[in-house]
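Shall we go through a protein fold together, starting from nothing but its sequence? Label the sequence line and the structure token line clearly, so we can match residues to local backbone shapes. Would you write everything just below, so we can both look at the same thing?
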Amino acid sequence: MEKVNTHIKMKSFRWSCRVGLFALAMTVLVMVSCKSKEETEPIIEEPEPEELVLPDTLKVISYNILEGMKNDKANNYNKFVEWIKSQEPDILALQEVNGFNQRDLEKLAKRYGHNYVITNLKSTDNYPVALTSKYPIESRRRITLHVSHGAIFARLKDTDLNIVVTHFWPQAYWKTVGDNLGNDYRLQEAKVVLDSTIRKFTEEKEWIFMGDFNSVSRRDYDPAVTTNNYWATDEIMGAGYIDAIHYLHGYKEDGSAKYDFQYPGRRIDFIFGTEPVLKRVTKAMPIYDEFTKVYSDHPPMMFHLLL
């Protein structure tokens, strides 16, 4: 019986040795193969990404793209991309980015040369806002509570420039059709966004606040025209903001408005800035051309800022 056990042990030992030798041989073979591959295939080093230098003049556009640029969706957004390329904005603030998640918008933005994207998706809303940029932008806050379509608060990297994009409630009602509390809601939204940004960081002086406010400015109208749809813009201007177009072109409140551009209908889209920013603005106007006449019900707003 002892001989049998000894024989079994010897057989098991020989088998273990064979397995070990086989494993060793395979390891050596793989190492030789890898070495051979390294010797025959040169290592290709990835080029260092080109460092972006901020331009002397920053071009900013704010644009409500009408339910995710639905009028160009069947064309794979080719016309939209072509138009953005022709405008060459450094920063693009978007409203109604319907149907796009972060990844989708990143893919679209790359097509027009913007590698930096911030989205603000809300589970209870289909009309989100977004920011895309040619230059690095840092998200500081996404505002979603007590507002309809939310807001994004960001900063242009390596600068003191704060950027806020929003889209206020569009309807005449708030909670119930016929309650006529839409202006109350827009006023609430203005306060929520202001309290979360410029009023919270009072020591910071450089601010841009833009988007579709679904409100009008009393400075676009004769002083005799009264409406409570001024409430939201009055609140915004009371926080220290000035409309860029008014800053450069004057306004009807003092009879000085002389706009050398076309504007269809009443204006509810604005780019506001604080005075330290607007002192460096060289151009501010809506863009109304063959593309914008067809592809959205809002003309985009644009301005140029010296950095």
The first strand starts at residue 57 and ends at 64. The two ends are 94 Å apart (CA to CA). Confidence is low (pLDDT under 50) at residues 2-11, 34-38.
